[in-house]
Structure prediction request, 594 residues.
Amino acid sequence: MSELKRASTFLSDNSGDPTMTQASTSETPAAIRADVRDLKFWYGKFQALNGVSMPIHDRKVTAIIGPSGCGKSTLLRCFNRIHDLYPGVRYEGEINLAPEHINLVAKGIDPILVRLLVGMVFQKPNPFPKSIFENVAAGLYVRGIRNKSEVEGRVEEALRQAAIWNEVKDRLNKPAFELSGGQQQRLCIARALAPKPKLLLLDEPTSALDPIATAKIEELMDSLVKDVTILIVTHNLAQAARISKYTAFMHMGNLVEFGETEQLFTNPAVTQTQDYVTGRFG
Amino acid sequence: MSQSLDEGQTFAALKSSGFLRRGRVVAQAMQIILFACAALSVFITGAILWVLVSESWLFFSQIPLVTFLTDTQWTPAFTNARYGILPLLSATLWAAGIAMAVATPLGLVLSVYLSEFAQPRVREVLKPILEMLAAVPTVVFGYFALLFLTPLAKQFIPGLSGFNLLVPGFVMGIMILPYVVSISEDAMRAVPMTLREGAFALGMSRWRTAFSVVIPGAFSGVTAAYLLAFARAVGETMVVAIAAGQNPNLTADPREGAATITAYIVQMSLGDLPHGSLAYSTIFATGLVLFLITLAFNVLGFFLRRKFREAY
Prediction:
């Protein structure tokens, strides 16, 4: 309940929020970064997604919410085909990524190519067993960027974007494991940002962190969204309300409702959504 | 049972009953037995070291250490005896080095394949077969090297002697492969899946993930595997005693035969040397050298593991 109170407080006094005002005043529809069409997904024989369709708006935060096991992480993980690591999975449908409208889940598309386009940050920080610098540079090396000054420049840029530069600039060659959990997660965000992804996936990025580290990452998302399209899965409804422009509510592998966050939280079209966002179930 | 426990009296009676007292005695006894088992292995190691040091005392009291370490001839059975460990040591290191040169790349590729690429079914078949290599008696490996591989290799390598270091070194490399693969594959599989997901999410291929994330993540385990394998190769006896010859020979050419430390010990132990003679004490002096080499590698492995231990 307390979470909900915070969410509604935020919603009621967000009139001064610049991104909100901008969105409501601009009449032109926002560009679409990715378009999900009738996406179905199977783990072996179990169907985890039953035909999901939704747009991902360019340079906005889109949040996916829903009870545990509803398929929200499954949906997110389709966007970079990380499911392909495990045997017996199957996709049907489309995720078309602008501007070339490549269908990310098509059989003929190399999953590695998909991952070169789409960045991802996981629930638990997973820095590699390397130095801080090498962690951020890893994605650049993969893309063949080896020029020393360019790598250094982009590592610094990514660390600045991830709001961790000041904390690590004097110890770039220290192992990443020495950082705190919150710092490790921001390092992972920097690692995902360094190659300039077309889409950044965040899979419950703050659920393993304390409230202060969480606040830092939320703040960070606010500033990142100027340049990057963000798709985030979160268990925390208040977080979805605070940081996202659009929200998708999922249940049992179905997309129940998709809409502007403000509308979905205050005036949902579906009773099930209302029950969930007001805490009656889930 | 639960009913009786509810009653305080029965509970107190149970507490002082013979049943529980016996349980305590058994627990005490078990603890002592288990400690004794652990202590025994420490004691045996200590005893072996004591025997090695005390028996080689005679040797080092007559032969200066500098001579032992720098003389280039090892002829303790001759009338004009020379006691330089270098020929034996160089043969030992040559054979073990060749074994590692075979086992290192092969073991790394195999363990990466098994942990990162192989389908579960392939792995389930391949790994036990590979581990069966470790079940082959070393004497079989020795005769395999001497009677099959050496004649075969002679056709390709000019100047290869019947006894040589190259072929037994190669065979030892194959022999230690199961140790290397088994341990390093376990270490690689212990690297959490989240790290691999992170690497794949950056667009890394499987090979790249293996070499830039999984192997560094499993570094301590992989290193331990190689150090263990090296210690095993240094101490290996049968293969080199059979296929590398019995002739102490300081050489830089692995096509020649040369006795290793272990081969020398076998040779001397089989002869009837008078107890307490200088020749007899050479067995213990060379054994001590062998012990120190493997000890050094174990200690090195211990520190490497501590330094690079990854906490997940």
